[in-house]
Amino acid sequence: MTPHFNVGTTVGSPGPKPLDGIRILALEQMQALPFATQLLGRLGAEVVKIESPNGGDLGRSSLPAMEDPSGRSVGATFLRNNMSKQSVAIDLKSPQGRQLVLDLAPHFDVVCENFRAGAIERLHLGYEDLVAVHPQLIYCSLSGFGHALEDGSASPYGEWPALAAVVEAMSGIYEMKRSPGKPPTVSPMGALGDISTALFSAIGILAALRLRDATSKPQRVDVAMFDVLVAMTDIVVNFSSLGMKGTMAGVGIMDGFLASDGYFILQVIREPQWAKLCDVVGKPEWKDDQRFASRSAWTELLEPEIRPVVEEWAKDFTRQECCEILTSGGLIAGPCFSDDEVINDPHLADRHMIVAMERTDGLADPVLLPGNPIKIDGLAEGPERRVPWLGEHTDEVLRRELTLDDATLVELRSQGVIA
Fold it and tell me: Does residue 82 contact residue 57 with C-beta atoms inside 8 Å?
């Protein structure tokens, strides 16, 4: 493994970041909201994360994992989404714990949560509760199916727990992509549902900050994962309305092909591209063959005729060579990389997209994490801090924000309110 950018280092000239001074109190767990707040933190925001004293963020228990200095598991989901945050362990089920959050809220610009819809209100930490103590608050809720709208209407799925795969399935894309007679492929792109929802949440928070500054009024941002996935898989609704229901068969060729050292992908969805492919693979006569006169025909004849010809041509070249030949011929192609190839890719190295965090459990190789894909001229990247251990900053934050003294902290800890 070749780490390209280490936690604690800075690339570029240090200076102000666009969200310097913005403070976020995050009642969050798993991936969608933690990714959003981590992204905002990379742009300069300060993020204080509230976790349960009993195990913390559920992402800590995911696998694979490493151990923290106390021997507790820190799972991959948590490691990917919590760089440079402060962790405060508060029991939100206790009245004193809830009061601590209400006392903390006025010290922050944004309070955000991704509890199951209705759960945060039952804890008396919903929008109305927080705005009562912080009249200029930005409150962002991220859930599977959103909260009730102003007219009182609510989702029929509102009580369902929703992880990424659930809303991905409900978006229609699994059925559209499913091979006949086969079950759907679940989570084909890792965290598509989580990270896409995170990005819309981050945009919503940024827009709300702008609106609050213009109006001095509180703002409520409500992002439903199901809504986001319908937006991300936009072809499902759009293609259906245009007569292509539940299929992509008429689109053309979008598939993987075998070269001498693995697979590359090729996309042929326009007639001029088809003509170029015929020339590259040595089949110029196919350009005038009426069997291949439509895009749907390319799909129908992919397996019996097109794939054997393309792969016979490709067997003498590597994936990289195939893609260089195809792209130089005006086509769209790219190699299918392995994990090691991604980690050692020169493009990613130049753009500081692989971040290395030193392990704390005695193993030499660092934990590797994706970097920040937002590049702004003149804006330095880093320094980032490692993920926080559970409750690592509890005393520090409560002393700083609420001026609690040692005796009070000891008493709260003895009661299990904080950890």
Answer: yes
CA angle 3, 38, 130 (to 5 degrees): 165
* CA 285 remoteness from chain centre: 46
Answering whether pTM is above 0.70, one says yes
Cis? peptide before 183, omega within 30° of 0? no
Q: Is residue 210 part of a domain?
A: yes
SS3 (DSSP) at 345: coil
| pLDDT tens figures, 264-297 | 999 999 999 999 999 999 999 999 999 999 999 9
Confidence band (pLDDT; 50, 70, 90) for 49? very high
- Number of domains present in the structure of the chain: 2
- Strand partners of residue 49: 26, 87
Token representation of residue 47: 């993020």
How far apart are alpha carbons 416 and 297 in whole angstroms?
67
C-alpha span between 342 and 349 (Å, rounded): 10
Helix (H, G, I), strand (E, B) or coil at 27: strand
Reference 1, options 347, 381, 334, 355; nearest CA is 355
Does residue 297 share a domain with residue 178? no
Cβ-contact 26, 50 below 8 angstroms: yes
Indicate which CATH number applies to the domain containing 37. Answer: 3.40.50.10540
